[in-house]
Design a protein that fits this description.
Oligomer: single chain
CATH class of the largest domain: Alpha Beta
Strand order of the largest sheet: 5-12-11-7-8-9-10-6
Catalytic activity: pyruvate + ATP + H2O = phosphoenolpyruvate + AMP + phosphate + 2 H(+)
Function: Catalyzes the phosphorylation of pyruvate to phosphoenolpyruvate.
Keywords: ATP-binding, Kinase, Magnesium, Metal-binding, Nucleotide-binding, Pyruvate, Transferase
Mean pLDDT: 87
Radius of gyration: 31 Å
CATH topology of the largest domain: Dna Ligase, domain 1
Largest sheet: 8 strands, mixed
Number of domains: 6
Protein name: Phosphoenolpyruvate synthase
Low-confidence stretches: 1-26, 592-596
Number of helices: 34
CATH superfamily of the largest domain: ATP-grasp fold, A domain
EC number: 2.7.9.2
CATH architecture of the largest domain: 2-Layer Sandwich
Structural class: alpha+beta
Number of strands: 26
Shape: globular
Length: 975
Amino acid sequence: MKNYNLPKLLVVLILVSFGITRLGYSQTQVSPDKVQNLIGVYKNDIRGPYKDIRWFCTDGSVRQPKDPCPDNIGPGVQHARYKDEVVALGKSNHIYFGQILAYTTIDELWDANHNHSRLKQYQLDKYLRLVDDGWINQKGQFYRGSVQVEDEEAWGISFYKSILSQDAIIANNFYLIRQSLKDIPHNGDDNIAQLMRSESKVISDLYTPFMDLRTKIHSQPEKLDIQKVIDFKSKNQKLLTTDLNKKLDGLVSTMQVFFKPVDVQALLDKSKLIKGTSLGDKVQAFINSKEANDTASYSVNEAALLLVDIREELIAEKRPLARLQLLDISLKLEELLFQNAPNWEPTSVSGQLEKICALATASVGAGYLELWEWEQISGTLSKFNQDQLSLAELTQVLETARAAVEWSAAMVKANYQEVVNVYTAFEPKAYAFIDDRIRGSVALHLGQSVGELGDFIAKESALTNKVMDVANQSTFRGLNPGYAYGELVVVDGSSEDVEVSADKIYVFQRSPSDLKPVAGIATVAEGNMVSHVQLLARNLGIPNAALSDANLQSLKKYDGTRVFYAVSNKGNVILQPESQMTDQERGLFVKKERNTDKIEVPVEKIQLRNTDVLNMRDVDASDSGALCGPKAANLGQLKKMFPEQVVEGLVIPFGIFRDHMDQQMPGKNGSYWEYLNAMFVEAERMRSANVSEPEVENYQLRQLEILRAAIKKMPLKVDFMNQLESKFKSVLGSDFGKIPVFLRSDTNMEDLKEFTGAGLNLTLFNVLDKEKVLEGIKDVWASPYTERSFKWRQVYLLNPENVFPSILVIPSVDVDYSGVLITKGINSGNDKDLTVAFSRGAGGAVDGQSAETYTIYDSNGYRLLAPAREPMYNTLPATGGTGKKAATFQNRVVNEKNMTEIKTLAKTIRETLPKETNSEYEGAYDVELGFKEDKLWLFQIRPFVENKKALSSGYLESITPKINTEKEISLKTKL
């Protein structure tokens, strides 16, 4: 038996385990483990993912490989067919291996209904083949005739001719289309930059001593690196295998091609359709002027401007093939810029600012930043011609430039993260794809230049981070002040399944949406500053910082180390090993009595005898903590103040919950309420007996799990259900089960004077079906007893047993965009400014989405802090449940009219809410709101709670440098 028959046998076994037989395909999703097994089989199969080769004729007929299509039915194409299980995987999981373009329709590859997943998978497949010796085609890459290059190129031209004929597609997907040109064959070019990175990665994986050179080639490629690779090969010759010698020679050849001067003229000569057009003349003028002034700074500046011109004027050129030629020139200009950026070495602050501005401009032209975003920040980044700037002004330039780097990286993630996550589950090498794309972009050089400016400003302001021994420390920036001590855990990948511990410090790519208590956090994608996680961190004084991808990679070697972590009130960051802690820092963690700094849930005014479903119009702020929680009470108050901006609503008060908890608990001797209180009594007895706190907590969590399950099955009383039927009709104007509603948990533990409780309990979106509403009520009642909610409460509350949930029931509004308003400038530090964060669709900004965030200044104007980079958003269909739509970023979320309305709303809230509620509260408010067809809707208002202890800590004050922000710095100053 020949060797290649063995994989066929394995394939049969895997097919059976998949449920795929000759009779048909299973539509059940295939598990990642089984996909991984299948990949292993393909790697060892001489045909890879392909079954056989056929001729595909114009009339739709399929012929044997030695029987080409006859002339009388037109020309055909020859290529492989996919194995049956590959086809099945596409149907069950929407995963497509070994895609052959000539075997695919244009609409199939564009894959608009799945956010262009197949196109992105095609790109990811190409990357994996480069870094893993052909990947699933490891042996199949030699399967002759499976793919015909000339047919693939012809298909690529047809593809671009189709999609580039549609203005809306170009406007909505400029970045993705431009990136796809690097991978879809259409003009004989290859992605040399990616090939260079992948070849260096393969060598370092095989031979560890090459790692330093690989890092250099990945992060700061220069022509001098060619000689370094040659020298490395010579120095290590005795230890290199024949294969490694061959791979090093291949890398040298690739690098020589990459660093060969970019010939834009040759490409322009080939691009005959744009000769003599406005853009064609600009390209020719660039080429001519570059011959007269071939300095690196001139090339980068002028190439950046031309990139933007091409992007801005592309729509005006209506011929799709001319558009294709312009985009190819755009890619060539980016190559030229990539080559020249390392050679531009500014010596003064002015020169550094000019380089940063040019590279940010190039990022716009290459699609990493949107045109409207550039309008918001270009003024700040164009100050390099001034004589001097104050330290405050220069710091704002730095913050804006740093933001441009983050937004550029976020554009890559927003487009590819979803597909990368799917593939990483069965192919870990896929995870590096996003990093590879970022390193191949102008964002790489922009980030380095911004880091150098940050180092200069750090010295001038004494605002220096001290983060282990990692490079480019200026890219760390504090978000929430606080300090922590514990084991450092660095999570390089998805964080959703990470089991966190309250005594550890976590570094995430992106924090989990339902984060449990931790000692400290730092995130690459911090979401937004007003998400529930951020607000809880701010409330509890948990140190929280943002960092770059490169910073996270540098910290991986410290994973598992015990560290001290602090973020000052001004945002400088300290992260150091336990051994370097000072006596003062050790003193911060001397064991305190359990009740220190805890607060008590007020229960003296609670009214548990009221068991009527209430009209939200009949409650106001005075009922908070008495009849219901603050969500319902405050929204009832807002309904009085803004009747047209607040929906109608029902309130299920504390009393109804308490009444149901007095029922007999199945399988127990007493009621649900007695079971709950017995658990707290036993926990106190265990503490008195010196049982360790983790053991006590574990006992409580086990008991709460039993209680939670019982509440979810609890019978609802007939009188209560009858009231719901009646109130849905009289208050919400619809029969129960005919109008979709939100069910919002609303406990008496939320919005206390020193505890926000934001996002700890359950909110159910857009529930329509009557039975699901009734089930949802019990789910919401059970949610305060989840592990996450209980642990957060335990951190702060003296009497967590006295937590009562009410429920706010409001009709759904399918808003176009929604978010949060904080009536203070979190970023600016000015109590009179506003902070707003919005995302597209419903539930925006609160769950840590990458939200469009602004500071609206009290004086005038506003500043964009971050654009939205969330690829999908929630919709609320009238049929109930939630839908998902793909977002594009070419337009801003919040418009000027909205800004004006938000500012007016904030003014009214500040002036009238304390009077209307007879409150002495003088702090900021946290408001959830949305817009539907430009109409403002209000959904919640609560006090904005910060951790006063962290803000006023003597230690944090001591590490916060006193900065003279008015200090003038000459831009001629040497770096």
